[in-house]
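Our collaborator T.R. sent over the components below with a one-line note: 'Predict the complex.' Nothing else. No constraints on interfaces, no templates requested, no preferences about which chain binds where. So this is a plain run: every listed entity goes in together, and whatever single assembly comes back becomes the starting point for the next discussion.
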Amino acid sequence: MPPKPHRVLLDRVSGYADEAAAYMRRRRVSRQPFARLYYPGGRAGDHAGDSLAGGELFVAAGRLIEVAGKRPKP
Amino acid sequence: MPDGETSGVKETPAADAAASALAYLTEMSPDLRGGAILGPEGAVLAASDFPNRWREDVAALLDVADRAGEEPVEQVHIATEQGEVFALRHAGLAAVAVSERFALASLMFFDMRSILRDLAAGGDGRGLDAA
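Returned assembly:
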């Protein structure tokens, strides 16, 4: 007997959810701090934290994070 | 603001339109901690709080970012342990947002670009609602 259509749909949705959860786990583990600049035309460049520009970018970003403060608890 | 794209903005958006746009960005982005929208001369049109601090710190960030390359930046994305910073220039305006870690950058930039595009066209930043 073929599975009921809603079972197929539920299996598919839960499969996508599992994939997404695994992706987010891998992303959290592997993601390190970075500074990325994008230019007109789609060009982008990364700046390491130990470079002069990278260090200045992280300092400037830190000031903005400080002024934004913590997110209020819902 | 040296982004070479100031011709796209008809006139500097009103502060209430910018505040509406910032509120809309906050609605759309649950990870957002705070943000600001700046006009062509770097003046703060709207900020979640402390507008003078935002003006100074955004100017410092964009100055550093512009000096890091050979041309003015269009977008900035900096991720740190404490949070993430997004900055976007469009049509002479700039939007800056600070979010929790691991915010989806593509969505954040899409939302920021949407509100700036609408503000530049004379709207209140909520143009997508009407679509």
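Summary for T.R.: The first helix of chain B runs from residue 15 to 28.
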